[in-house]
Design goal:
Blueprint (H helix, E strand, L loop, with lengths): L10 E2 L2 E7 L8 E6 L4 E5 H6 L7 H18 L4 H14 L26 H10 L6 E5 L11 E5 H5 L7 E4 L2 E4 H7 L4 H9 L4 H4 L2
Length: about 210
């Protein structure tokens, strides 16, 4: 076995070699090292030179923490906020997505901040919109506008339904009102009246 080179004082990653220790049972040189975080540990020469060991373990924890920050939501399929963001991406960018024609197909886009790679897009969305409140969905204030912070809000499904381009307006006694609201106010079946109107009935006959 050749002479072991003295590594005392040298730096490997976050580790600074303090002193040489007694060889292990396989006659491999061991070194006492101090990490920049203050922890000390014992490392073999081969692990220092190869870069296999660069810290006391704090570096791995930091990398894991950053990875969770970027992708932890993706791994948690039950996270509602992440799923809302993912569905938004799909309907605006994926021509094979069943809702694409109502969104990306008619020019609705998503702001660059919410589309960044490496998980940063979702983090931007989360910072701008916050966690999805219970039983709410993402809604565009201007139904013809893009998905961006100043045009989006969390709202109930009921309110979102009123903000669609295919909503039906009717005129009752000279007043314009959404059909869905008129039905709710008068305890009528929206779907039944909607089908009657589709068949060509007048609004007066449909709501009788």
């Amino acid at each position: 076995m050749g002479k072991v080179i003295d590594l005392t004082g040298q730096k490997f990653g976050r580790l600074i070699v303090i002193k040489r220790l007694v060889n292990d049972k396989y006659s491999r040189a061991l070194w006492l090292c101090r990490c920049i975080c203050g922890q000390v540990n014992i490392v073999r020469t081969s692990d220092l030179n190869s870069g296999n060991t660069k810290s006391c373990g704090c570096l791995r924890k930091e990398i894991t923490s950053k990875r969770r920050l970027k992708h932890g939501y993706a791994k948690n399929k039950k996270n509602h906020t992440y799923n809302v963001w993912l569905s938004m991406i799909q309907r605006c960018t994926n021509p094979n997505y069943y809702q694409y024609r109502h969104y990306g197909g008619r020019g609705i886009k998503i702001c660059d901040r919410w589309m960044e790679s490496n998980g940063q897009g979702f983090l931007g969305f989360l910072k701008d919109m916050g966690e999805r409140p219970p039983r709410m969905t993402i809604d565009r204030i201007n139904v013809n506008g893009n998905y961006e912070p100043n045009n989006c809000r969390w709202t109930t499904q009921k309110i979102q339904q009123r903000n669609r381009t295919n909503n039906i307006w009717i005129n009752i006694d000279g007043q314009d009102i959404l059909l869905v609201e008129y039905c709710e106010d008068n305890n009528l079946s929206y779907h039944k009246i909607y089908k009657r109107l589709r068949r060509g009935w007048s609004i007066e006959d449909a709501i009788k």
